[in-house]
Amino acid sequence: MSTIDGLPAHVLLVHGVVVLLPLTALLLVLSAVVPAVRRRLIWLVAALAVVGAVLTPITADAGETLAERFSAPSDALRTHVDLGRTMVYFAVALLVVALLLVAAHLVELRGGSIGRAPAALLAILALVTGIAAGVQCYRVGDSGARAVWGVQAASSL
């Protein structure tokens, strides 16, 4: 998919990724750290993680298609494309941790406990994954803004 109603698909889809992945990361961390949040939001977190894992490669592919339209892409655009390709790994990592949290939730629903050490490890994993995804999302977005608007315009905002 390269266009949506005549507009480059990447330009529209990227807004979904930029909102969805940081939101998923935040809710993932909260769900891992606060059991009451996990009980209430784990299915939402899992659904957001699935949508993010599906939408991210579609957005990256649309971005690569858009970048191919330029006969001589700038270094900034090449950097953005390279960083954008990595975002799928972060989206999949969020999904994997969300699925681990779903498994922990199901154990708890059945009256069991995953134990303190696994719960702490899961919280640390969620925190690291969430922060990494948020930082990478920022890096990709910043490089895209610089590619489109130029270094001078981005730094003067």
The major sheet is characterized as: 2 strands, antiparallel
Query: Which regions contain 5 or more consecutive residues with pLDDT less than 50?
Result: none
What's the count of strands? 2
- Structural class, from secondary structure content? mainly alpha
Query: Distance between the terminal alpha carbons, to the nearest Å?
Result: 32 Å
Count of helices?
A: 4
Mean residue pLDDT: 91
**Could you tell me the radius of gyration in angstroms?**
18 Å
- If strands are numbered along the chain, what order do they take across the biggest sheet? 1-2
Shape: elongated
How many domains make up the 3D coordinates?
A: 1
- In what range is the share of β-strand residues? under 5%
User: What is the share of helical residues?
Assistant: over 70%
* Quaternary assembly: single chain
Order of helices and strands: EEHHHH
Task: Please give the structural blueprint.
Blueprint: E1 3-4, E2 7-8, H1 9-33, H2 35-67, H3 75-109, H4 116-155
Antiparallel strand pairs: 1-2
How would you summarize this macromolecular structure in one to three sentences?
The protein is mainly alpha-helical. It has 4 helices and 2 strands; from the N terminus they run ββαααα.
How would you sum up this structure, described in words?
The chain has 157 residues and is an all-alpha fold. Helices cover 85% and strands 3% of the residues. Strand 1 (3-4) and strand 2 (7-8) form a beta hairpin. The protein is elongated and about 60 Å long. The protein has helices at 9-33, 35-67, 75-109, 116-155, and strands at residues 3-4, 7-8. The longest helix is centred in the last third of the chain and has 40 residues, at 116-155. The mean pLDDT is 91. The protein has one domain. The two termini are 32 Å apart. The protein has a two-stranded antiparallel ribbon.
